[in-house]
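Hi R.,

Here's the chain you asked about this morning:
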Amino acid sequence: MPRTVTLWGVAIVVTGGLLVATAPAAVGAWWAPNTDEWYSAVGIFEIIIGLARTVLAPLGAALIAAGVVMRYVDRRLTGDNISDRPRRWRWPDEAQNRNQ
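And here is the predicted structure, written out as tokens:
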């Protein structure tokens, strides 16, 4: 699951980057608005492209970060028993006994 989420994040970031780089030129090359209807269509298309350009890069970055966190949590929880898992802190009575 972490690998899939990370790969989706990378794909979305790359798609968003390509969209940022090529969308304005593509709209100008494909459509030459010469009537009011075409101006409306181009305006709507540019709004949709603008929203996608704004959303895709942060969404991809969030998915990459989520994949990294999932991989970290998976590695932390790989023991069969709870005693096999690494511990970062100790119960207060264990810490007190250790200091004596």
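One quick note: Residues 2-75 form one domain.

Cheers,
M.
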